[in-house]
Amino acid sequence: MRGLLGIEDLNREEIQAILDRTRDFQPAQGQGYPRLDLLRGRMVVNLFFEASTRTRTSFEIAARRLGAEAVSITAQASSVSKGESLVDTLNTLGAMRPDAIIMRHSASGAPHFLQRHLNIPIVNAGDGTHEHPTQALLDARTILDRGAKLEGLRVAIIGDIAHSRVARSNVHLLSKFGAQILLCGPASLLPRELESMAPGVSLTTDMNQAIRDADVIMMLRVQLERQNEAAFPAGEYFQFYGLHLEHLKLARPDVIVMHPGPINRGREISSEVADSQKSVILNQVENGISVRMAVLEKVLSGGQNGVSAH
After folding, report:
1. Residues labelled as active-site residues
2. What is the DSSP letter of 251?
């Protein structure tokens, strides 16, 4: 496995291997994350051209838990803000000889560009509206932790589908396991071409239809920064596409509610739902570290050491 640019190019067995290995890195009940020396002497560079706290911090913690050094570079604090081109930045990074680069960029395909020009494994931490592979992996691990199987799962993904790399990565992953995926949102944020993106995908603008008999409800953040103009006023959006407690009555009794964060309470999801027993949002955050440990181990060591973290 040379880097991780997206879920689309992985097969089911490769995905399953990462999800299985993630379990070894999950902290035991009542304990913290294990500290390991699997990647001692390795250096990982976090290169973030977009603001991020949760994902960047999660990758930093994951690298350090494995014994690697982690260096973070943000665009605002780098030469990029002084006009340096992406190619110049890449050449500078290459000269530093990191063992892997974690990259987030507002342009779709930026990590792929990086990978073509550098002989260093690249892990995509989110590129434009294209993919966010580790988010889909941690979402899948969270679903599995609740005792559900991915096969035959009915998953409703609701919100700003058009601008969501999280939705795209989840569609690629879940479809490989035979899940039924309903993409739901306002017509202006629901591109028709996504219906042919993968097997088992259907579209609807009716939130009740999407949620009915769902095993998983995955809410998305409204990405105002990627829109030329807001599709709906905040109050109107919440009325039609915000998740309320009453909606959960339409879903399966053991439904779980997910959100990649950050949560906008009262816009995409009510506080009553976000703080309910059905919510696994904090579980997703926690699984982010163990999933990224599994990915970094796989990328940097080929996952050949077989060491159990527990």
Report:
1. 54-55, 82, 104, 132
2. S
Give which of 62, 31, 27 is closest to 298, Cα–Cα.
Answer: 62
pLDDT of residue 95: 83
Give the neighbor-by-neighbor strand order of the sheet with 216-219. Answer: 201-204, 180-184, 154-158, 216-219, 256-258
SS percent in the chain: helix, strand, coil, step 5: 45, 15, 40
Which residues lie across from 43 on neighbouring strands? 69
CA 169, CA 27: separation in Å to the nearest integer?
Answer: 26
Digit-coded pLDDT (tens) for 50-82? 888 889 999 999 999 999 999 988 776 555 555
3-state class of 30 per DSSP? coil
Cβ atoms < 10 Å from Cβ of 270: 18
Report in angstroms the alpha-carbon separations of 246 from 232, 250, 251, 257, 273.
Answer: 22, 8, 10, 13, 10
**DSSP letter assigned to residue 8:** T
Q: What is the pLDDT of residue 305?
A: 47
CA gap 257, 45 in Å, rounded: 33
Residue 294 predicted with pLDDT over 90: yes
Cα(first)–Cα(last) distance of the chain, in Å?
Answer: 24
The CA-CA-CA angle for residues 5, 7, 10, to 5°, reads 95
Closest CA to 200 of 229, 251, 157: 157
User: Mean of the per-residue pLDDT values for the chain?
Assistant: 89
Chain mean position to CA 79: 28
Task: Identify whether the C-beta of residue 152 lies closer than 8 Å to the C-beta of residue 179.
Answer: yes
The two structure tokens encoding residue 148: 């559900």
- pLDDT higher for 82 or 217? 217
Radius of gyration of the chain (CA): 19
Distance CA 268, CA 243 (A): 6
pLDDT one-digit tens code per residue, 9-36: 999 999 999 999 999 999 987 787 778 9
